[in-house]
Design a protein that fits this description.
Length: 127
């Protein structure tokens, strides 16, 4: 029940956010949504008895959540929403107007790479 509320709470909080500020905030969002859903799935199949199953599910779900957010970057940008953290876009000097146009740039690639490496770390932890 708490996991389902986590998903709902994180989605509600997300409604007013135009751009995530930090990588930590992005990870918390992915963990609170997809990570929580993965843990909920483990409970449904009865695998919650082993803590390592739940931890692995949370990290795999978090990684999947980060990847899903990356996949829909262009679509989110068209709706005036951005899940690339402000600290990452600023550090890489990403021109946000290029996202709406769907243009691929080196700066965008660097931002995506930064988030993808965090997702990869979550997968490493899960194994």
């Amino acid at each position: 029940r708490d996991l389902l509320y986590s998903v709902i709470d994180h989605r509600i909080e997300d409604l007013d956010v135009k751009q995530v500020e930090t990588m930590a905030a992005l990870e918390a969002y992915a963990r609170g949504t997809q990570g929580a859903l993965a843990k909920l799935s483990m409970q449904v199949i009865g695998a919650q008895k082993h803590e390592h199953n739940m931890l692995a599910a949370e990290h795999v779900g978090t990684a999947a959540g980060l990847c899903l957010l990356l996949r829909f970057t262009h679509l989110h940008a068209l709706k005036d929403k951005l899940y690339l953290p402000r600290e990452v876009t600023a550090a890489n000097k990403l021109n946000l107007s290029t996202l709406e146009k769907g243009e691929g740039t080196q700066e965008l690639s660097q931002c995506v790479y930064s988030v993808a490496m965090i997702a990869k770390e979550h997968l490493k932890i899960a194994t």
